[in-house]
Amino acid sequence: MTRIATKKTASAPRKRARKSSLDKTTEDVPGSDTLNAIEPKRTLTDIAYERLEEAIVTLRIPPGTAVSELTLSNMLDIGRTPIREAIQRLAREHLLQVLPQRGLLVPQIDLRKQLRLLETRREVERLICRSAARRATPEERKSFLHLRDEFLQSAQDNDDIMFIRADKKFNDLSLIAARNEFSEGAMRLMHGLSRRFWYCHYKQVADLSETAQLHAAVADAIGQGNIKDAGDSLDRLLDNIEAFAKSTLTYDL
Length: 253
Description:
It is built from eleven helices and four strands; from the N terminus they run βααβααββααααααα.
């Protein structure tokens, strides 16, 4: 198991968050104001969750890493209670494993499990995208069109971090706009794992520009309120993701 280094401190963890080289968030990304305006005000727990989720997804905390509440609290300079609550959310999403009496572990990536995940994701996410296209408010539609532009910009710049952040915002906004708490619960268990899997392997077997453009097409269809195009665009995206996953399995074998 890998262990991550952390700074030593004799003082109690501070209750206010500050930015470090690890934890730049979507607040720092130009154009995020529209999406932020339609989301509830974020708590320290939300901030801790977002920063840890991105660190795990983008492999800054690699698979197999052993961590602790104190390590993560010191890393983000956020108090233990928000960190503990963020850990619970990440554990529910299978991005952290809580080992009794042994601390926390970032799980390894299971390639075959990813294919099983895609079977479920295709059905549930199609419902979410079509529902979002049908039910999104005018303000939410503007946010989807802004995310379309972010995806296209990430394709143009070949910027994987911009893409990952746009994908996270797109997933979260889709769940809000779909207004279906049952499908939301299922998808929240899959999004982070899917992003981490893609980020881990895309340089070997994927085309970032193509993937970002396929995401842009889905965001555009939802923003335009076109239910059929939203479903069709999502099918093309998931076909691409499934082919990517299978190529990754072959590549690793």
